[in-house]
Amino acid sequence: MDTLLAVLTSMMLSYAPYNATDVLIDKEEAFCLAQNVYHEAKGENLAGKSAVAHVTLNRVAHKKYPNTICGVTKQAKYRTNWRGYEVPIIGMCQFSWYCDGKSDDIQVVYEKIHPGKPIGPNMEAWKQSVQVSLLAMYGVTIDPTSGATHYYNHNISQPSWGQVYPVVAILSNHTFLIRND
């Protein structure tokens, strides 16, 4: 993780749209946001990735959710496994990637042909996820979801909570909703 934080730090410098010295961004929080954007919107365009970043930040600002990015992205029901570790219960997370039973190790992004040389679309998706996350955290981008706190892919699911919250945007394959309470 230290190596990935170093990569993230170097990307923060290269992707910052201006010298935002007055904006302090916690590296671990930035990593959690980039990781969420990557896993939730890896195949989306920049607007789709930006929408996921903003939904995550909108939840941080909402009183019904944890007040940190990492808290929001890792919000789940947990259980103790046979080794004594607290692990998320499969299917009981706010973001599906976090508790789908698959490894969330971002090293998967760094598929290698030769040691130290990342390749493929995963690396590009990771770079875009970092870029979009930092721009959202710097407050440079406009929220394309109009304050949404929830979203779902309307082509593959119709969740029950999709009838509870008002729809505020439809972008590409996703419907965005807002929790007003």
Distance between the termini: 36 Å
Q: Tell me about the largest β-sheet.
A: 3 strands, antiparallel
H and E string: HHHHEEHEEE
Structural category is alpha+beta
Which regions contain 5 or more consecutive residues with pLDDT less than 50?
Answer: 11-19, 109-114
Radius of gyration: 17 Å
Shape: globular
Oligomer: single chain
Strand content: 5-15%
Task: Note down, in words, how this protein is organized.
With 181 residues, the chain is of the alpha+beta class. It has one domain (2-144). 38% of the residues lie in helices and 14% in strands. The strands form two sheets. The chain has a three-stranded antiparallel beta sheet, covered by helices on one side. Strands 1-2 form a two-stranded antiparallel ribbon. Strand 4 and strand 5 form a beta hairpin. The chain starts with a helix and ends with a strand. Mean pLDDT is 80; it is low at 11-19 and 109-114.
Task: Describe how the helices and strands are arranged.
Blueprint: H1 2-15, H2 27-41, H3 46-61, H4 69-73, E1 76-80, E2 86-93, H5 120-138, E3 150-153, E4 167-171, E5 174-177
Antiparallel strand pairs: 1-2, 3-5, 4-5
Question: Would you kindly provide a brief summary of this structure?
Answer:
With 181 residues, this protein is α+β, with helices and mostly antiparallel strands. Helix content is 38%, strand content 14%.
